[in-house]
Design a protein that fits this description.
Shape: elongated
Radius of gyration: 13 Å
Number of strands: 0
Number of helices: 2
Order of helices and strands: HH
Structural class: mainly alpha
Largest sheet: none
Amino acid sequence: MKNPSPFNSAQTHKDERSLPDRDGVALREKIRERAYQLYEQRGRDHGHDREDWARAEEEVLDKQRLAKAA
């Protein structure tokens, strides 16, 4: 049986992360995808979901800010 991903459960964010970006893709979904990549890069080691989410959030939002500034 596969280990369930810690990123499949709903995350609650009530700020800009829940709004679509200019590509029409929700920022929250981009963050979730990046957090899952970090989880997989670690070898699917559980117990780091909050730090993966925080790192992914920072990376995605930084990337968006840089794109808006350009």
